[in-house]
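Record type: monomer structure entry
Structure origin: computed from sequence
Chain ID: A
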Amino acid sequence: MVDRKAYAVCGAALLALAGLMIAQEQGPLHPSGPVVAKPKAPDADTKTGDDSNLPKIPSQYTKKDKPDTSNLAQFKTDVDIVTLDVAVMDMKGHFIPGIPPDKFRVLEDGVPQQVKSVNAGEAPMTIAMVIEFSNRFQRLYSMNWFQTLQLAWGFASTLKPQDYVAIIAYDMRPEILTDFTTDRNKTQEALQRLTIPGFSEANLYDALTDTADRMSGIEGRKAVLLLSTGIDTFSKITYDQARKKLQEAGVPIYIVSLMQAQREMMDARMGASSRMDFLQADNAMRTFAKETGGQAYFPRFQGEYGTIFQSIHEALRSQYVLTYSPSNKTHDGAYRKIRVELVNPATNEPLAVRDEKGKPVKYSIVAKSGYRAPRAVE
């Protein structure tokens, strides 16, 4: 009788152990903790939760051997140059090359500007991937959890060896999982830390503006790729403040919305308040993208991801870079609205673009909507 009981206890223990091993093998990643996995050697700022001492991204690429300029003569200049990254896209999201420089017209606050140069070409990208990863919508093994990981890993796999990428995840606060790097092993290690979300807050405005501000000093082709539902819970800043900060940073924001398919499936059972929250979130993301010269995408099917990634690459790698000296020389810190047009100089009419077969092509122009003028130096 005792032997039978002992066998029963041992058998139950073996079954429980087997069940635990099977559960650990499920899912695209292997969760290793109750929250977003921590790096092997976290720094002091990560432990304390204090953002004030975080370096400007990209921190490790700051030149070490800077010349001593403390004894040099100081001067200032009133020459202002505005640089615009402009993408001309057809209705399928493909870049339209070969547009002559004299066909571009730039208006600042409605006043035509004298364009000094127009250059086109391809260049490496500098991308900050800002990923919403909170327990609000991305519980472990949920539909949105899988979609977030598919988009993050999918876009990372399309990067070229010379592209720089940083990974920032946010819930209650943004966390830099890896600084800008071309080392794809570091990128993979950062994405593997997206295991189990910790907090239910999703403070989008704080995370997005913090990243854009850190990127504002980077030269070259740069952008933020945001993977988010667009819902903001308890950010320290408001929507209007976030718009202003993003306009001042001047970094294009490319956005891929999450949960579009889930929202359609749950629409009949969704309350009016929740439906309005999501609609406002979509509108906010469209505004952020449009005003910074980026684009917003709202995929409902996984098959759309490849086309979205290609469109982002074309928009960032293949751009026209316009420079002009604004006719308004006032240094008042005011926001100046910009509009870029394609015109026929002979007729001053909108430029008609045609394909190889001579058929008219509908196109759109992607450029930031304005910039903030510098303030006078006292």
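Annotation 1: The two ends are 95 Å apart (CA to CA).
Annotation 2: The first strand starts at residue 82 and ends at 90.
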